[in-house]
Amino acid sequence: MRILLRDIGKRFGRRGRFVLQGIEMDIGRRDFVAVLGESGCGKSTLLKMIAGLVPPTTGEILLEGPNRPTERVHGPAPSRSMLFQQPSLLPWLTVRENIAFGCRLRGELEDLAYRTDQFIEMMGLYGHGDKYPSELSVGQAQRVCLARALIGHPEVLLLDEPFSALDTLTRTRLQEEFINIWQSEGFTAVFVTHDIEEAILLGRRVVLLGGYPTRVEEVFDIDLPYPRRITDERFFLVKNRIIERFREVVVPPDRRDYLSGASCPLPGRFLAASAADEEGGQ
Amino acid sequence: MRILPLHRNGSLADDGLFLLQRLAYAAAGFVLFAVGWFLVGEILFDRPAFEQFSDLLPLPTLRAFMGLAGDPHFWSSVAASLRRVLVGILLALAIGLPVGLCIGYFRLLRDLVNTPIQLLRMISPLAWMPIALLIFPSFESAITFLVTMATVWPIILNTALGVSRLRPAWLEMARNQGANDRQLLVKVVFPATLPYLFTSLRLALGIAWIIIVPVEFLGVSSGLGYLINDARDTLEYDRLMAVVLAIGVLGYCLDTAITAAQRFFGWTWAD
């Protein structure tokens, strides 16, 4: 499924400031886009808008699939499955019941037990099927969430910093496993992160958000083969390019009040430069 | 639905020892209570003016208590009181659960009704007695109304609290997985509020058990309140005291039973 974001803007409350403004994106079918931005810049809100959980204030999100007309995002749909930052498992259900939760809601009961077992196996959760979330580690809980998000074979998977709560070793293993799953399942993935290395490790493209209100500053094509290694020289070069650009576009939170208006007419780069000049002059 | 086994921190032997220790403390507390009762009674009823009340002492009470155990009238009275408590709580649940769910879910409604509810819940159920007698055609229906009035507030407030403490991530996840409003309520909101509902039921049962005795003074011919009135009128003070004791024992048993159910059907918040 192809996702088109057209002039997306978001503000909270009628008189609130725009957090996101003029966001344009074209996410191709089976693409893997990593959306990179600092904490609190509105990345998760952007993802929730694509999921249909939050409506945009301005603009529209369009979905284009093969053999079907273009449709506008109106509310949530299981075809756009989301994986949240914190494991959102229901504590009164077992691992097996949590994985099958969405399918049961939608009445997709055919071979459900078999499919659930398959995903338990795929996620390395063998022997944990009858456990409750309180008996799992955070890494295991996030695997269960991933299984729940994938069991309905979504066309789009939206990931909101799903590995940020994990330790480095578990995160690395899950990142590698996730790339394998994406390559075999063939869904479109939109991955939100504030970790530059994670964005380059996973994304075929990295969309850099910056400025205030937040907008797309630059899109980087990552032409590195999977599996990627952070020790790779090319990885290092890409990372440096993004870091340099990141420094230019990101407005520190303590400068935002000074720089912002209800809508900000100036590009983020200009604002950041002005802020830096002013600081230098003091 | 999650049914959790009780969490054990130590081995089976440790658990057994812990249980024995608790039982020993409970027995010692009970003995201390009986000794205190006996001593106070001995000092008070030793005087000639109070001699007629000597049946209120532990030994006559215990004898009458044993006698009650074989008295079918006592058991029918217990059944009558329990039935009234149960019917009142079920009615309170039927009203309180949906109202609590709505109040917890819709913030505007919560803001609207919070003050009236806080005001109403502060009115003693016994204050409604004359009004209940005026409105309802029978003593039975008046008692049911009073028990419901006393127990509906903790059910409403605790259910609303449970809903308001729902994790937004659960709702977002369920909506993302395709849940409609009804499924959201049945599959997420209701199970999430279940621990709070059990707490409210425990509170409601405690309140209902306390008020059932005074409201059964209302002219009915069965129930524990009636038995107390009857024993007082016939000057059977040992029986009166035995019924008082029975009310305490039964109340303790009910509370223990609902606490066990709370543990059995509850689940931890940690996920």
Q: Structural class of the helices, strands and pairings of chain A?
A: alpha/beta
Largest sheet: number of strands, sense, barrel closure of chain B: none
The CATH homologous superfamily of the largest domain in chain A: P-loop containing nucleotide triphosphate hydrolases
Return Rg of chain B in Å. Answer: 23 Å
What CATH architecture label of the largest domain in chain A applies? 3-Layer(aba) Sandwich
Number of helices of chain A: 9
Topology-level CATH name of chain B: MetI-like fold
The assigned structural class of chain B equals: mainly alpha
What would you call the shape of chain A? globular
User: What is the fourth-level CATH superfamily of chain B?
Assistant: MetI-like
> Could you tell me the strand content of chain B as a percent range?
under 5%
Straight-line N-to-C gap of chain B: 15 Å
List the uncertain runs of chain A: 258-282
- The value of Rg of chain A in angstroms is 20 Å
Number of helices of chain B: 10
User: Largest interface, per-chain counts?
Assistant: A-B, 29 and 25 residues
> What is the percent of helical residues of chain A?
25-40%
Describe the structure.
The complex is a heterodimer of chains A (282) and B (271). Chain A contains 9 helices and 10 strands. Chain A is of the alpha/beta class and 282 residues long. Chain A has 2 domains: 1-46 and 56-79 and 156-228, Rossmann fold (3-Layer(aba) Sandwich), CATH 3.40.50; 83-153, no CATH class. Mean pLDDT of chain A is 84; it is low at 258-282. With 271 residues, chain B is mainly alpha-helical. Chain B has a single domain, classed as MetI-like (MetI-like fold), CATH 1.10.3720.10. Helix content of chain B is 78%, strand content 0%. Chain B is built from 10 helices and no strands. Chain B has helices at 12-45, 58-69, 72-105, 107-121, 129-135, 139-164, 168-176, 181-215, 224-233, 237-265. In chain B, helix 3 crosses helix 9 (224-233). Chain B is globular.
